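pasting input
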Amino acid sequence: MELRDDLVLRHVGEDYMIVDPGQDVVDMSTVFNLNDSAAWLWKELEGREFTKVTMVELLTQRYEVTAEQAEGDVRKLIEIFEKYKLLK
Amino acid sequence: MDIPSSIHIENDLLFEQVLSYLQQGKGVFIPIKGKSMRPFLREGDKVLLESVDHKALSRGMIVLAKMDGKWLLHRVVRLGQSHVSLTGDANVAIHEAVAYSDIKAIAIALKREGKEYNLNDKWRLFVGLVWYRMRPIRRVTTKIFNK
């Protein structure tokens, strides 16, 4: 899978958010909030093809989590990506 | 790790973003929160904002303004020399007087249940102002219904 390349990750205050900036119109009613680790992962995944395995590897290398924990998080994250159509 | 969710952003941070997009010449949809513009705007609606030309302001328009550090999306009811009077459609007594420079954007369209409506056609502006002029009656009915 691949993230949509028209989405922008922005650091706003203490939060990270993903904005869909559109061509002429920006919809601020559907922006998404990411915490530090999700935002870090988003940046790592930007502009490249990846799989569930890539995501789990990235998380376990960077954070002190077991593969099982990372897998659980990754599954939830992918569900969200799909639900809100954040993937290409 | 927390998963991303639909977000609640502090108003200041949200509108900072909104203003920067408006300055780039883009339109920006924002979600309606609160009840101050009922019955014309309600929670769940989105309005499309555009950057404002102060000369093009007219009574009945709904505008985004910053007053005393707070953000308002209210209707223009009077255009004065230096100040503009705004009010929420749900209000029966209050006005806000803001400087022209405090008006940051105008609402041009409403999106409700997938349909889009022009907010600034003559009919809608007229109805908005008629609603405003009905304040004395609305005050009475509010009292009756609140009993």
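fyi Helices of chain B lie at 11-23, 122-133, 135-146.
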